[in-house]
TrEMBL record:
Protein name: MYC binding protein
GO CC annotations on file: nucleus
PANTHER family, A to Z: ASSOCIATE OF C-MYC AMY-1 (PTHR13168), C-MYC-BINDING PROTEIN (PTHR13168:SF0)
Subcellular localization: Nucleus
GO molecular function: transcription coactivator activity
Keyword Chaperone set for record: no
Keywords from the UniProt entry: Coiled coil, Nucleus
Gene name linked to the record: mycbp
Organism: Electrophorus electricus (Electric eel)
Lineage: Eukaryota, Metazoa, Chordata, Craniata, Vertebrata
Coiled-coil region list: 61-88
Top-level division of the source organism's lineage: Eukaryota
Family of the protein in this entry: Belongs to the AMY1 family.
């Protein structure tokens, strides 16, 4: 019986440790969010991983999304500029190529 009490005491210490560190609250919040999802995700583990991140990670993710959006916009602009320059170049190339073929 002494062994049972010792292991129970260790369990209780570990539970208090998790509670003090905020792990239990975080896990509870994520599991509640998963429970309240109207359409359950195909992979519950991915949902938990995604929603269990710390506040710093979510801030980093948001800043990366903003940066991605800006870079995507810049990329689209450069593609359009490239298209326009190619079209301008094609106006002059056929005449040059045609002369070289003669």
């Amino acid at each position: 019986m002494a062994h049972y009490r010792a292991s129970e005491s260790k369990r209780e210490q570990f539970r208090r440790y998790l509670e003090k560190a905020g792990v239990l609250d975080s896990l509870t919040n994520v599991l509640v969010a998963l429970y309240e999802e109207t359409e359950k995700p195909n992979n519950a583990m991915d949902f938990i991983k995604q929603h269990l991140g710390s506040g710093d990670d979510s801030t980093d993710i948001e800043s990366l999304r903003v940066e991605l959006s800006k870079l995507q916009h810049k990329y689209d602009q450069l593609l359009e500029e490239n298209r326009e320059l190619k079209n301008k170049l094609l106006q002059y190339e056929p005449a040059t190529e045609h002369r070289g073929a003669e």
